[in-house]
Specification:
Radius of gyration: 26 Å
Largest sheet: none
Number of domains: 2
Distance between the termini: 42 Å
Shape: elongated
Structural class: mainly alpha
Number of helices: 9
């Protein structure tokens, strides 16, 4: 038999040397990452609370009612206990050296990766909409026939491909963590693009000479998906910020 022993552990606030507002904190982080001071736009609290409620509905969102309440309450504490634990005074964030190589790339990827995911999703979703309804159905079936699709299977292939494009677009915006690493989604999209490109190159090679480049644009699309595999392949947050005590 074993007995559980409860030992009270003192709480130590891990604080910095100087208090600062969130605006000042973000400005200092931009400076450390090698950026400019930046522009700050005031947002009404009513809009912030509405956005918080909507953001809380998204999977993996860091913004919810508790997070907003914490921001409104503030987070300031004396540093004497923290200094006694670490054995020295904490370094002021404003005194950190400017290290764009260490902090700049992760800071930029934190907002560039969501933008990239959204643009990839927009391509798939718009392609699905165009294929299923906006582009003339007869022209789509004619293209399928030219690549070798049986006439009887034309409508099934047309709307099946449009549905697959739609699924890829939706999953690009909201990937369920239970499905494992997000890299699987990007890899599947690469496979489909390569298959489409190979088939069209074989049966409709004139599309390589099209002035709008419907096939050549697949090359940067694949490159962007490879980048997402490298930097956004996990099921959680892709980039973790660097911190110093």
């Amino acid at each position: 038999a074993s007995a559980a022993v409860s030992v009270a552990s003192p709480r130590v606030a891990a604080v910095g040397k100087e208090p600062m507002t969130l605006k000042e904190y973000l400005a200092v982080l931009r400076h450390i990452a090698g950026g400019s001071y930046g522009w700050f736009v005031p947002v009404p609290m009513a809009l912030v609370r509405l956005t918080t409620r909507l953001s809380a509905l998204l999977p993996g969102s860091l913004m919810n009612a508790d997070a907003l309440a914490m921001l409104e309450r503030g987070n300031v504490a004396p540093s004497d206990r923290f200094e006694s634990v670490v054995g020295r005074a904490p370094r002021a964030l404003s005194q950190m050296p400017v290290e764009p190589e260490r902090f700049g790339a992760p800071a930029r990827l934190m907002w560039l990766l969501p933008l990239l995911r959204a643009s990839i999703a927009a391509v798939w979703i718009w392609t699905a909409i165009v294929s299923a309804g906006l582009y003339p159905r007869a022209s789509s079936l004619e293209l399928l026939a030219r690549v070798g699709a049986p006439a009887a299977l034309g409508p099934l292939l047309l709307y099946g491909a449009a549905f697959l494009d739609l699924v890829f677009g939706v999953l690009s915006l909201a990937w369920p963590s239970r499905l494992g690493p997000r890299a699987r989604l990007w890899a599947l999209q690469i496979v489909l693009i390569v298959l489409y490109t190979a088939l069209i190159s074989w049966r409709l090679p004139e599309f390589w000479l099209h002035p709008y480049g419907p096939l050549s644009k697949n090359l940067p699309m694949i490159a962007l998906l490879v980048m997402l595999i490298q930097f956004d392949g996990g099921s959680g947050r892709a980039i973790q910020p660097c911190t110093n005590a």
